[in-house]
Amino acid sequence: MTARARWTTLGLALLALLGAAQAQGQNKFRLKLGAEGRVCFDCHPDFQDKLKNTFVHTPVKTGTCVACHSPHASSHGKLLAAPTSAICTTCHASVVGAKAVSAHKVVVEGGCVTCHDPHASNNKALLLKPGDDLCTSCHKALGDAVARVKFKHRPVSQGCLGCHDPHGSDKSVRLLKAAVPALCVGCHKPDSPSFARRHANYPVARADCTSCHDPHGSNTAGILFDTVHAPVAAGRCAQCHNAATAPEPLATRRAGFELCRGCHGTMLNEVFAKARVHWPLVDRTGCLNCHEAHASRQKKLVNVEETRLCGRCHRDTTDYQARLAEKARREQTASKVKVEKGAITHDPVRAGSCSTCHSPHASDSVRLLRSASIIDGCGACHDWLKHNSHPMGEKVTDLRNRNRSVDCLSCHRAHGTGYRYLTTFPTATDLCVQCHKQLRR
Amino acid sequence: MPRILSALLALAWLAWLGGEALGAEGDKLRYLTSIYLDAKGGGMRQPEGLACNDTSLVVADTGKGRLLRYTLEDREVKPAGELVAPQLAAPLRVQTTSQGEVFVLDGKARRIVRFGAKGEPLGYLTPEGVPGPTSLVPRSFKIDRNDAIYLLDVFSARVLVLGADGTYQRHVPFPGAYGFFSDLAVDGRGTIYLLDSLRATLWAAAKDAREFSARGNPLRAHASFPTSIAVDRRGVLWVTDENGSGVVLVAQDGSVLGRQLAMGWTEGLLDTPGQLCLNDKGLVFIADRANNRVQVFAIVR
Lengths: 441, 301
Hints:
The complex is a heterodimer of chains A (441) and B (301). Chain A has 441 residues and is mainly alpha-helical.
């Protein structure tokens, strides 16, 4: 051994000694070897089986259980070192981009274990179930519909992740990997002759494909939504739009309700013969405020299901109903009675069946009520009205206001009040003495 | 010296105006009286609109398809006949001119019917020279002190400004994103205000502005479904909350000054209020629709 080699060996030995001394200093709790995780298997032997899975979470594989669990005590379930909503993001912070246009609710809420096994799985990405089974375990209705439909969209059969990003999307709504129509034209070439022929030669390459087509498949050829506007079904686009060869082919021939009047003249004439019209019907959007022009999942081509349709504009009413429903739920929970008597919410309002009482297009009655008489309107559902002992009707004057007669709204409010039986005062006594003042104590 | 004097006067005027506007924060409505009957002793039914000045009041008795006139003398309201015309099926909004003419928007025909100062029907208001699109559907309208007519045209999404004779003067398009505009108001300086009922927001366009800009934050915390707006001579906006049965006072910058009144049947309370009108004597008239009456309040501080 040369002198140089001797000095090198001596230096390395010194460095090793220093390193060992430092390591002893760091391990101030004198932890056993493998205390970060390997010793856990002594008591949790079933985890050895987990390790046999095809895909194992790296901290599990390296025996670093303390990466997620606190070994002595914790304020969180399963001795987790942090809340479930935060623990995964300590390592996987970037699953939803800062500029995400849309994000999966379950991800935002930190429910990673809804889809992933935090230890190990035989499915890629530690997923709990393979393929679309995982998605349809929550999106059951959609899964059932996809399985049932007559005309299927091939990418859907190949997996949800063909179009959707399961965590979030920087590109589009609904977790789509690209916005429509960019997503669609990736497969469907708009310049192909068959595409042009099927779309009556209209330049729809930049149109919203989902205004006609159901991307998850449908029972109508061409995966059009199940309710198709007759001119669309017949390929008569020019009935509403300019000719395909016109400078602005997609522009409509007329604006607002005037366009629809060409075919739906009888219906619109009936509407305009009423004293009061639903004003959105006569604005620049007209019928399309509530209806789709081409196709819809809903009957009568309405934009969304009836339960949500009116609430999109009349938010004050739907928000109030939600608050009342919550109040009813809280009161029922706190109550010792099995079912509290007297509803706080009115069923048709809570269910969004506004058209039970209101006419959506026009009416001769105030508030677009179907019935001119409040008593008749309520009586359509509430038979007991016919034998109510309290005098009611046009000839019975409300003692609080000489220009009002007594009807259901003298004591109740159809959209609720926060009190049971939808009464305008909390107790029957409070209510009755509003008119019968002589009985006040 | 005259310049300094003018500047001082201008400053004093601005300070007075500012003080008046600030003072609106302490405004309260004191109930004065309610109007229930016409000249023949018949009751109103669902009145939605009204117009007023210092000496007269015109009420749209919507449920009965007629207009009722009243005279005002020392805060006393006296019936002065009714106006009826075949064109009037559902009168919704009323305005009067400086010459005493009455203009009323009919909800069924969605056109504006005119009456002369003596109550004689003068047919429909026909706007002249309006640029395309020619179709228009007025949801509301206002007439300013110079008798210029401001039409809220929901079909063509614009506010049309017409001369007293109905000739087109200019228009201001609606802003890009909005819910539904139910009413408009015009202040003494010619600023046009729009009321978006669905989003409970206010928009404004100064006299020569070409577009509307949002004023303040949404009024959602103060108003459920605002449908009518009026402006007093100080520039304070009076917004009627139809579903919430109240009145919200808003400063020109969009800040909320307060909320007045509440839902009820008895006098001094409202049930589904419609149009509101203020006169120069400090009286406030409110079409109390579901209560089948018009209520009169005085502004007190």
